[in-house]
Write the C-alpha cells for this entry.
Amino acid sequence: MEERRARPNGSASFRIEIGLGPWGLPEEVAQAAVLLRRDLLQLDILAVDAIPSALPEGAKGVDVGTIGVMLVSLVEPVGITAVIDLISAWVGRGPGRSVRIELGEDVLEITRVSRADQRRLIDHWIERHAKP
C-alpha cells in the first residue's frame, strides 16, 4: 500500500464505491478498482485503502464489496476537487461506470448523466466540503 505523509494543516477521508453496471463481473470490478486506485495515488493524497466487507456465513467466492470499495484520505480538504474531477473522468471513460462517494452523511453519485448536470452536482458537493 502506498502512503504519503500527513501535513499538519489537516486531512479528510471519504468512502468511494465503484460500479460497472449490472453486467460487471467481480474480476472486472477488481481490475477497475486497481486502475482507479493507481490513478488516485498520482494525486496529492495520503492513501487509498480497500475497505473489506465480511462475507455472509457459508458464502463462497469473491465479495465485490471488498474489491470495489475504498477509503480515500486526502492531505487537505481542498484536494477534494482534484479527486472528484479524476473520478468523474474515470466514470466517463466506460459504459456502466458509476462511483458513489460518501463523506459523513453526504453522498455524491457520479454516473453518466449529462456533463452539465453532473458538473453542477459535483460543484455543489465540492463547495460543501472543500472549504478548510
